[in-house]
Amino acid sequence: MAQFIYSKRCQHGFTLVEMLITIAVAAILLAIVVPSFNSLIESSKERTTRDSLVSAIHTASQLAQSERVNVYLCTTTDGESCEDTKDWGSDWLIYQDDDSSGDFDDDYDTIVAKISAKTNLITSTTEEVKFMPTGHSLANTFKICSNTDNSVVYEMVLSRMGRITYEEASGDC
């Protein structure tokens, strides 16, 4: 009968206690990291919303200058007409006002772009933004709000010259 020799040098693997301690440390680290990661994702969505709105504003302004017509940026729910609301949390529409009526008319005006922006609550001081052939616009303020606590995250001010500045965000939406 052969005898087995017990030697610590030949042991491989982990004991049950070592495994439980490792799992406990991993669980504690996950409990710390996951909420921070969620806030990072929310912050990224807010920046994406802000950047999409800035891009839409620049597109409308450049189109007005290049085509020498009035161009409007407005909010839409159906992608075919502008809504009379100051809630900019739905899709956006950029259109050329070819008949110079100041209102969207699908028989005469040209839809240039439909932009999907269903991420955050955005409020505005006006229902639409008008860009003139000079590139100037009517002044407007947009408030981009958090989905988690309904606080203002970004406050964007569009000047008459078409310049966008960011004000200190405060208050609720």
Shape annotation: elongated
| Strand element count | 8
| Uncertain ranges | none
Report strand order across the widest sheet: 3-2-1-5
The succession of helices and strands, N to C, reads HEEEEEEEE
Count of DSSP-assigned helices: 1
Radius of gyration: 27 Å
Give the count of structural domains: 1
Estimate the strand proportion. Answer: 15-25%
Structural class: alpha+beta
Spatial gap, N to C terminus: 83 Å
CATH architecture level-2 label: 3-Layer(bab) Sandwich
Mean pLDDT: 82
- The CATH superfamily is known as minor pseudopilin epsh domain
Please describe the biggest sheet, giving its number of strands, its sense, and whether it closes into a barrel.
Answer: 4 strands, antiparallel
CATH class descriptor name: Alpha Beta
Summarize the amount of helix as a percent range. 25-40%
CATH topology: minor pseudopilin epsh fold
What does this structure look like?
- This protein is of the alpha+beta class.
- It has a single domain, classed as minor pseudopilin epsh fold.
- Helix content is 30%, strand content 24%.
- It is built from 1 helix and 8 strands.
- It has one helix at residues 16-67; strands at residues 71-76, 91-96, 110-115, 122-124, 128-131, 140-145, 152-158, 164-167.
- The strands form 2 sheets. Strands 3-2-1-5 form a 4-stranded antiparallel β-sheet. The protein has a 4-stranded antiparallel β-sheet with strand order 4-6-7-8, covered by helices on one side.
- A hairpin with a 5-residue loop joins strand 7 (152-158) and strand 8 (164-167).
- The termini are far apart.
